[in-house]
Amino acid sequence: MAEELETERADVREDGRRPPRAVVGSHRIEEEIFGKVFDKNIVARIWAFVAPYRGKVALAVVAVLVFTAMQLAIPLIIRYAIDHGMQPGAGRTALVFAILAFAGAILINFAASYAQETLVGNVAEDVLFDIRRAMFSHLQYVSLSFMDKTEVGRLMSRLQGDVNSMQEFLETSVLSVGDITLLIGIVVVMLYLDFGLGLLTLSALPVLFIVRIFWLPRARKSFMAAHETNSVASGALAEAIHGVRAVQGMDRQSVNFNLFDDKASANLRTHLTAARFAQVMVPIVDTLTGVAMALVIVVGGARVLNQALDVGVMVAFLFYIQRFFDPIRSLTLQYSVMQRAMASGQRLTDVLDVRIDIKDKPDAVVLPPDMDGSVEFRDVVFGYNPKHPVLKHVSFRVNPGETVALVGPTGSGKSSCMSLIHRFYEVQQGAVLVGGHDVRDLTQDSLGRQIAMVLQEPFLFTGSVLDNIRYHKTDATREEVIAAAQTVGAHEFILRMPEGYDSILGQRGGNLSLGQRQLISFARALVADAKILVLDEATANIDSYTEMLIQKALVKLLKGRTGLVIAHRLATIREADRIIVLQNGELVENGNHAELMRNGKLYSRLYNLNYASFDDIPDTVVEEATDRGQT
């Protein structure tokens, strides 16, 4: 089941049509809107979340049944009051008894209704809370290969929209027990009171079922269309908001408005159609209710006049007819709710069933804090698709305290090496060792504590500057945070912020410049106090002045630590102890800057292309580098 999330589904339904899909720009997302009416496997999975609250569920069912019993009893009490309260002599006693019974029924009805609503609502919220927690917890540990191939929008849809569909189902499913019981109870009581009049009342049911046969497929189609156009309009709106800078920069406001207006208009039309289908059953049911009541009044009234039927029985019939079609209407709507819930439940369980590829072994060892900080690749073969390796038999060793830079054209495997050190992915062959231990034999927590990473695009979370800097090491003191910020040159601009270190950062640190965000990520790495520091294009988007500050900070940052650096600005790695050059996933050169420049091979050509004028470079060098994809 989980594989459906990892590949775009192109399956066709039994009716020969593709499932409804949401469209955003040129991107299409397939999502089943309606599933089976009842899927025992999905119900079993959801029941696993409901089971801890089965006591409350049982009480809710009891409350629903008591409420239903009172709905059945009230017309009988009224019938008793009419038939016996008018009799001479004992009529007063019967009337007092009926009034007391009626008052008791109303009180019990209120208590049962309050209990069922409260219990069902609480259980539904508790279950949804547990489902969301389980999904979020699971997604924290799924492999990055899954996250690379899965759209965030689809995951958010499952965490929000599908969970809300389950909430609707959970809140109405228990109440459906009451609807079914009420429907059966009304039929039984009416037939018991007067079999002939009961059959006459039930004669309206075939008409309702015939109408439903024609209504349901058309209503289902209209609901699906409304759901799809809503997704399209929402996606277009989100895309326009995220791309507002490009929209204004290219003066596309009027064009984008017209495009969105088309989608919004289509959404309006489909929702109006869906609303008509949703509401058409109301007048039909009301009409049938009126017809049934007219039949009872005409036929029952004639029998009352002939003294073949008690007045109380006919009045009770009128009350029952008023309630008879309510559960039918509710159960009809519940049909679509269950279909949506089964489809949503399938998608939720798909997320929960996503395989976690990177797991600790049962006998995994904790990487000791005093490990030497060495990193070694032994004949490593790795590919995101195993059939197409990115790294091909790569072997090298980074000694403790050594700073090693990885250089190479785009796609040569530099970032893949960094990911393997942290064990974000598993190698297909060979081994990656940290501190002399194969990373597959270590616990992920202990490995993560000894590796600090600074990426090209730092991710800052909504919260204070202080909390963002100590994100890797939450127990760091304020003094340690300030010292780290001073070391990397971030202290001054932080103090200029309104609340200093307690200033709240916007979404992804949007109220800071890219250079400032990167400096905070450097401070975060310093506070982590890890033995191994990984810098993956950490200075690619920083201006020259900020880069100069960071170069000075790196001297302190790398002191006593093992450093692995990726940088396209080759000047930033000139002072590295050693430079490893990768090309097409293979190690082609290894040495310091001076040695590699003397060799005059790939590194030398890359360096010259970066820092010399094109007019000064021989045409043969440019042509050769261009052919290799190195420019």
Task: Provide the CATH architecture of the domain at 3-352.
Answer: Up-down Bundle
What is the level 1 CATH name of the domain at 3-352?
A: Mainly Alpha
What is the helix content? 55-70%
Helix count, per DSSP? 21
**Mean pLDDT over the full residue set:** 78
Q: What about the largest sheet?
A: 6 strands, mixed
Structural class by SSE content: alpha/beta
Oligomer: single chain
- Find the CATH superfamily of the domain at 3-352: ABC transporter type 1, transmembrane domain
Give the distance, in angstroms, between the N- and C-terminal Cα atoms. 44 Å
What does the overall shape look like?
Answer: elongated
What does this structure look like?
There is one protein chain. This protein has 631 residues and is α/β, with parallel strands linked by helices. It is 60% helix and 11% strand. The chain has helices at 3-6, 40-50, 54-85, 91-139, 144-149, 152-193, 195-202, 205-242, 244-249, 253-305, 311-352, 414-421, 444-449, 465-469, 478-488, 491-495, 514-528, 544-557, 593-599, 602-611, 619-627, and strands at residues 21-24, 27-30, 375-382, 391-398, 403-407, 429-434, 437-438, 451-454, 463-464, 504-505, 532-536, 562-566, 578-583, 586-591. Strands 8-11-12-5-13-14 form a 6-stranded mixed sheet, sandwiched between helices. It is elongated and about 120 Å long. Mean pLDDT is 78; it is low at 1-31 and 613-631.
